[in-house]
Design goal:
It is a single chain. 29% of the residues lie in helices and 16% in strands. It is of the alpha/beta class. The protein has a single domain, classed as Vaccinia Virus protein VP39 (Rossmann fold). The protein has an eight-stranded mixed beta sheet with strand order 1-4-3-2-5-6-8-7, sandwiched between helices. Helix 1 packs across helix 5. The two termini are 14 Å apart.
């Protein structure tokens, strides 16, 4: 894969150590229906941040599958349409969703359960701290679709894709597994590509117009994509692999 224009490297920021940014679920005053659903109705399918940390290195036990069974991760499930779709077309694989907000977390797992899917689980945590949740080589494929682009330059430090994040993700994934990344933000895409190229990952494919590319027929159109496609805005996409 051709390397990204070196001029883009000026956008790269130095890595920085992160700590989880979230309020504890337990003890929340005036818990919403979604908080109650996480602790009650969907407890067997959804894990709060404490239970999620305790599953580190043991996620396949949570799914009730063998240690060799593939387990994929979607970071930021949103309303859960892709989450349920992916779990449905790959029932031989376990799919874990990661979402920090209570409402989309419950919407996602509810959508999967209503479809009768038993290979899906979801947990609440800050995606920038994956090393708190997973052991080395515990993950297979990872999906990162439309993460917050944090468009103002002073907020770029909050973007998920950072040098440290990619280093940690590479360690947590199994050799041969892949990351699928897409965004509606060209600026975020131009931030991401050089970081990937400087990481241990191998960039397999990238396009600045997913829906007019060789990958179009394999793409699931998310809610976000529908909004931007209606405006005539392209979707930016890349895949990279741990060799």
């Amino acid at each position: 894969m051709k390397k990204v224009d070196p001029s883009l490297r000026q956008k790269i920021q130095p890595s920085r150590r992160r700590t989880p940014r979230l309020v504890a679920t337990e003890g929340l005053p005036n818990p919403t229906e979604y908080v109650l659903a996480l602790q009650g109705e969907f407890r067997d399918w959804a894990l709060d941040e404490v239970r999620a940390q305790s599953a580190k290195g043991k996620w396949r036990e949570v799914f009730g599958v063998s240690p060799e069974a593939p387990m994929d991760l979607e970071i930021g499930t949103g309303n859960g349409y892709f989450f349920a779709h992916q779990a449905g077309i790959a029932k031989e694989r376990s799919l874990l969703g990661l979402e920090i907000k209570f409402k989309p977390l419950i919407q996602s797992i509810r959508r999967a359960r209503r479809a009768g899917l038993t290979n899906a689980r979801i947990c609440r945590y800050d995606a920038s701290c994956l090393e708190d949740l997973f052991a080395s080589n515990e993950l297979d494929n990872v999906f990162i679709h439309h993460p917050d682009p944090w468009p103002r330059q002073r907020d770029h430090k909050h973007r998920l894709i950072q040098t440290e994040f990619l280093d940690n993700l590479w360690t947590l994934m199994k050799p041969g597994s892949e990351v699928s990344f897409k965004t509606d933000s060209e600026d975020y895409f131009d931030w991401t590509l050089p970081l990937v190229n400087q990481s241990k990952f191998n960039l397999l494919y990238s396009t600045r117009d997913l829906h007019h590319s060789d990958w179009a027929n394999q793409n699931f159109v998310t809610h976000f994509e529908q909004i931007f496609l209606a405006k005539g805005q392209p979707i930016f996409y890349c895949r990279f692999q741990k060799n």
